[in-house]
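Holo prediction — S-adenosylmethionine.
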Amino acid sequence: MISYQITKWSHELFQMQVRPGGCYVDATMGNGHDTLFLCKLAGETGMVTAFDIQEKALEATGKLLREYQMEKRARLYLDSHTNMDKYLEAESVDGIYFNFGYLPGGDHNLATKADTSVEAIAKGLALLRKGGVLALCIYSGGDTGFEEKDRILEYLKSLDEKRYIVIVNTYYNRKNNPPIPAFVVKK
Ligand code: SAM
């Protein structure tokens, strides 16, 4: 059976939209599973640029990419995703992946935060080329609270419909604050 876990689901939709062999950003590197997914999609010709604020995340991601011999396909930066515009040109990126929250097995205080997440999404949209997609895995409840989810959804709602298509999915019958996969396509 196909997995409908949020990350699997959003990977499927992400790759339906982007061209393979492109330029991608992992805005929240964590343990590197999404960076690895993007590196596979990048192939020999593409490139992945990945960010995290924790050294631990860069170590885990570097190790994972080396296991799969994909380390040459990614540049890993110990920096906030709010600075992604310092590393990439406007309108040059095919796809950007955000998987919000905290590093699994890590410090929950170092989770993504509403202010910086919204700022980084805005920067990401400026980097996307036409037809590019920004994918978001949004969480709420528990340690995470609701502010980040509410602020991101409010921001997505405010995007100009002439410039962006915004799709927000729901696990409609799932209880206890299910995760929200969302997608923004730049027209
Ligand atoms: N993509 C990851 C994976 O495949 O394992 C999971 C990401 S994890 C849920 C969220 C990550 O966002 C954490 O590693 C955390 O350190 C990182 N993070 C928090 N604030 C950040 C920021 N301002 N810029 C970049 N990364 C940030």
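READOUT: Residues 28-34, 51-54, 57, 80-81, 99, 101-103, 110-112, 116 surround S-adenosylmethionine (CB under 6 Å).
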